[in-house]
Amino acid sequence: MKCKEAIIFIHEYMDGDLNEQGRTELRQHLTDCIACRQRMDQYTRTTALIRSMPRTKVPEHLTNSIMQALPGTSKRTAWTRWVRQHPAVTAAVLFIAVMLMSLVSMWDGDNRLMVRGNDLDQLVITKDQVIVPEGHTINGDLYVENGRLVVEGQVNGNLVVVDGQLNLASTALIGGEHSEINQTIDWLWFKMGEWMEAVTP
Amino acid sequence: MEGLEPRLAKLARNGDREAFRELVQLYKDKMYHLAYRMLSNKQEAEDVVQETFLRVYTNLNRYDDTHKFSTWIYRIATNLCIDRLRKRKGTLSLDAENPEGEGIDGYDMLSSSDPLPEQQLVLSETQQLIRDAIEKLPAKYKSIVILRYLHDMSLQEISNVLNMPVTTIKTRVHRGREALRKKLDQRHFF
User: Fold this and answer.
1) What is the predicted ipTM?
2) Residues in chain B within 8 Å Cβ distance of A53
3) What is the pTM of this model?
4) Is residue A24 one of the residues assigned to a domain?
């Protein structure tokens, strides 16, 4: 066997791929050839050295930073799981949210003067003012939005002013309650009260 | 019976993050050691490990559990390392580690807070010798030497990981072994 061949055999041997016959041939060559024996010894020491390399410390935060880099936080999964487990509550919450949103947009959207009530022909209505003149009587509730309500006469019912002002003259006579609503939230309560009255028999 | 890893992979695929965390625990050290040996840089090694698991996570539906999970994850990590080495080629940067000490690179020299003294391994001269020799190997030999001797893979396993014929792997193991022997010989190790 030539040294060139022997080196191939040495590699095969180190890979664990040399059969019995090859090993016998190689052994024979190695007993005769110092250079190849030395070469094989060097390979063995090289691989032993690689295997003995110390391992660097793995950073402790590695697992967490890997998990955090994944798409979709665990918070979101927890949230969707909750939604799936409570469909009724979710539907109710969504319904309320949509209602609130539409109410808010209603409240913000309209700046025109609006009057609601009975006996509207008794009223004097200007651009931003509603007057119940002295000597006139309104039978029932009066509702004014986005304007001033001046009462000089008589109202046999409740007065509600939204986003406006209520002026009661000394001659005014109010049969029911009167209130002014200028905050979204007050107005919401009021609307909800109205609904509840409508819904409950 | 199904093995642990395919089972965890299946659970993770269906959104079980704790199952995925278990896979991370099983493989993060191996992946880190592989990446660190390939790139000789802590920050880059960490980035590669993170990227590896991210790819595993987003491709879980493509994982074919008739194959070994380890083969798949090793392939992803090795390819990411080789890509980085290829991009890095010829660019001098802080990422090049100081050959004088294990784990000391440009970043460490800039920030005084980073390495704790007890983490600094004191390497013997021969350990430094082999470390430098491996670092300077071309990527195609480096990956194979690392998988063969630091991750104890058979030639067949390496061939599966790298998707190359066993004969190619064998030739590269032989050449890598010879290159390392030569380098150690030049430095009068023998």
Assistant:
1) 0.80
2) 37, 127, 130-131, 134, 150
3) 0.61
4) yes
